[in-house]
Design brief:
The complex is a heterodimer of chains A (388) and B (271). Chain A is α+β, with helices and mostly antiparallel strands and 388 residues long. Chain A is built from 13 helices and 15 strands. A seven-stranded mixed sheet of chain A has the order 1-11-10-9-8-2-3, sandwiched between helices. In chain A, strands 7-6-13-12 form a four-stranded antiparallel sheet, with no helix packed on it. In chain A, helix 9 crosses helix 11. The model of chain A is unreliable at 1-6 and 382-388 (pLDDT under 50). The mean pLDDT of chain B is 95. Helices cover 18% and strands 31% of the residues of chain B. In chain B, the strands form three sheets. A seven-stranded mixed sheet of chain B has the order 10-9-8-7-11-12-15, sandwiched between helices. In chain B, strands 4-3-6-1-2-5 form a six-stranded antiparallel sheet. Chain B has a two-stranded antiparallel sheet with strand order 13-14. With 271 residues, chain B is α/β, with parallel strands linked by helices. Chain B folds into two domains: 4-92, Elongation Factor Tu (Ef-tu), domain 3, CATH 2.40.30.10; 105-228, Rossmann fold. The two termini of chain B are 29 Å apart. Chain B has helices at residues 72-78, 115-127, 150-158, 204-216, 259-266, and strands at residues 4-13, 18-24, 38-43, 47-52, 62-68, 85-92, 105-111, 135-141, 162-168, 178-179, 196-201, 225-228, 244-245, 248-249, 256-258. Classes of the chains: A alpha+beta (388), B alpha/beta (271). Chains A and B meet through strand 6, strand 7, strand 12, strand 14 and helix 11 of A and strand 6 and helix 4 of B.
């Protein structure tokens, strides 16, 4: 049993992770965690330890993802699947509005379903950073998105420290990982050494400390935290992908007309996969529907992607008609204009956009290509022609 | 943020495809706005549209919008009649620099429907006439049948201290006015660079040429030129991402920007 005065940490065994899930469920949280579905590790509701991807890991490379067996009992022995937690905090599809037309009057109905209290189990350091980025975008600016805000404010966050890195990871470049340092209620380090299979739990909030106090935790010593640090170092040493962030904002702003955009456009399918898997991409579209009698109407919000032609449509035609301009918009927004808008980069280095790009476009390579041959003199072309 | 239902008081046909809707503001809604701001107008079951407020800020209790029917949502918006209801969110966005323009000459340059968001600033200047210097209004439309606010324009032209000029791209048999793009009107205009604030709205290409004209040939610094930008918009609060223009969200950082901020970005193709 650990206590607060002993650094808010403790060691638990494998079954205790199951107890953690049921404890949170009993206290009214809906626990979302990693589980195997459709050949991938996805974030779904988990009700017991059997739902977790025990013994599974994945192989990732640009445009490639395969599950494989680890040969041990690790619960968190993978890195990242296609989904991020934005699926729950910033739902892919949500009803914004319900309206009725009654006796010639327009009635806007109140939307009052409170969202569930989510507990996220297995949040990686880069994903904690992504949540912090979405906090800045969706509640930290002039307006607050009530849908995100309601889900975010009642959140229990259980981080998991990475013991290994995928070849697509580059959190070390973005300063977001591999070890979770803040923004969690509890952080788990899974210790697998020979016969030893234990979990170091560290509380990062009062809420986390209180849950930790309810588990049968054994006292953790300095040696255990040392193991956790070693594991993080080991994971970091496996990371070979890299983005040089120094001067990146100005580099991209000076290279709107770089020939590399044409090169990338020759490969990019403009499918939008990178925006769907990105844990910070937040763009949405709305769709209005009504019943046939014209009495009941709804307005739905859905994730959108800057890779679609309709995204930039205004009367007269879309602004970004070429794939070149759409790829440039995504990358420049993510790595440069995001900083102007929200004081932080939009990239956390999770590498999902690399893995899930069907043609394996790697943003770190695109940035490197631009850095290697910067062009300073933009070729001026005529802007889209409006009418007077 | 849910739209608040507003009743339509009047629908006025301005041209063959452009209509002005006057909405009654419910007491609890307030209805205050600054010239240059826009609202999101919701047509039941059809969709929501960003529309600039084109009414007189000195007339409380109503909101006025001029809409050109160009698509599904605008088409259904202009089909509404007095007594029908629309949902309103807003007002949103930045405003014309009417305070910074106090004591200065005001130059208004509008192209087509771009006169709509500028009409509220013209009303504001005329309502506070002593606070401003010379008022110059340059207005270009595609053809005589596209000229907006004819009654207003005649009254502005008749003011002794207002210089209001019109031109059309293409005349017709009955047109006896000027023919040419809006920049051709600058030959009739003398600006005093140190005390002029310019406000522009129209197609982007027109604004680029007008900015270049007044900056180069009339020595107005880019910081004294203001323009309003248009992009696809779904939320008006910076969440949907559609209206991004380089580092800016047109909905919350704009739609009114100084040319100083827009200049580095305006020439970038497909930004």
């Amino acid at each position: 049993m650990s206590s607060r005065e002993e650094g808010l940490s403790g060691l638990v065994d494998l079954p205790s992770i199951g107890q953690l899930i049921s404890l949170l469920e009993r206290q009214g949280w809906r626990v979302i965690g990693p589980t195997v579905r459709d050949g991938a590790i996805v974030y779904e509701r988990v009700e017991s330890i059997d739902d977790l991807p025990r013994g599974w890991t994945e192989e990732q490379e640009a445009g490639r993802y395969r599950l494989k067996r680890r040969g041990d009992d690790a619960l968190f022995g993978y890195n990242l699947g296609p989904q991020s937690w934005k699926k729950y905090l910033h739902p892919p599809e949500v009803r914004l509005l319900e309206a009725r037309r009654e006796n010639g009057l327009l009635k806007i109905l109140k939307q009052s379903d409170p969202p569930p209290r989510y507990a996220f189990l297995g949040v990686r350091a880069c994903e904690l950073a992504a949540i912090a980025v979405q906090d800045r975008v969706l509640v930290g600016d002039r307006f607050a998105d009530p849908i995100y805000e309601a889900r975010r404010k009642n959140l229990f966050l259980i981080a998991v420290n990475c013991a290994q890195a995928a070849p697509t990871c580059f959190c070390t470049s973005m300063g977001t990982g591999p070890r979770a340092r803040q923004g969690y209620d509890l952080a788990i380090t899974e210790i697998l050494e020979g016969e030893r299979h234990e979990f170091l739990l560290e509380a990062g909030s009062e809420q986390g400390a209180s849950v930790l106090g309810q588990l049968r935790a054994r006292q953790a010593g300095p040696a255990d935290s040392e193991i956790a640090e070693k594991m993080a170092e080991h994971a970091a040493s496996q990371i070979h992908r890299r983005i040089e962030t120094e001067g990146l904002h100005d580099l991209l702003y000076a290279n709107w007309e770089h020939p590399r955009w044409d090169d990338a456009a020759g490969r990019c399918l403009s499918c939008g996969n990178c925006t769907m898997v990105c844990p910070t991409c937040f763009c949405t579209n709305v769709e209005d529907v009504s019943d046939v009698r014209g009495e009941h109407a709804e307005r739905w919000r859905r994730w959108d992607s800057c890779y679609t032609l309709s995204f930039s449509y205004i009367h007269g035609g879309s602004v970004r008609r070429s794939v070149r301009s759409r790829y440039r918009q995504w990358l420049t927004h993510k790595l440069a204009s995001w900083i102007d808008q929200f004081g932080t980069s939009g990239c956390v280095g999770c590498g999902r956009c690399i893995t899930w790009c069907p043609v394996g476009i790697d943003l770190t390579a695109e940035v490197r290509a631009i850095r290697d041959t910067p062009t300073r003199a933009p070729k001026r072309r005529e802007n889209r022609n409006g009418e007077s | 943020m849910a739209p608040a239902p507003h009743r339509i008081l009047r629908v006025k046909r301005e041209t063959h495809d452009t209509f002005t809707l006057t909405l009654e503001v419910p007491e609890e809604a307030g209805g205050e706005f600054a010239p240059g701001q826009f609202s999101m107008l919701y047509v039941f079951g059809v969709g929501e549209l960003p529309i600039s407020i084109s009414g007189d800020p000195g007339v409380p209790g109503q909101l006025v919008y001029t809409v050109r029917a160009v698509g599904k949502a605008t088409g259904s918006l202009v089909k509404l009649r007095a007594g029908d209801w629309v949902g309103v969110r807003g007002p949103f966005g930045s405003a014309w620099p009417v305070e910074a323009a106090r004591g200065k000459d005001v130059l208004i340059v509008a192209g087509g429907i771009g006169l709509a968001p500028l009409r509220s600033v013209i009303y504001h200047v005329l309502n506070n006439r002593d606070a401003y210097g010379r008022l110059t209004i340059l207005y270009g439309a595609r053809s005589p049948k596209d000229l907006l606010y004819r009654v207003d324009f005649r009254s502005w032209s008749r003011q002794m201290d207002t210089h209001a000029l019109t031109t059309v791209d293409h005349g017709d048999l009955r047109w006896r006015g000027r023919v040419g793009v809006v920049t051709t009107l600058f030959r009739y205009v003398r600006l005093v660079p140190e005390r002029t604030i310019a406000m522009l709205c129209g197609p982007e290409i027109m604004m680029r040429y007008v900015c270049a004209e007044i900056e180069k040939n009339h020595q107005l610094p880019a910081s004294q030129i203001h323009l309003t930008m248009e992009r696809n918009m779904k939320c008006a609060a910076g969440f949907c991402g559609h209206c991004q223009f380089g580092p800016y969200f047109i909905c919350k950082d704009g739609p009114v920007f100084s040319y100083e901020r827009m200049k580095p970005l305006l020439g970038i193709y497909e930004l």
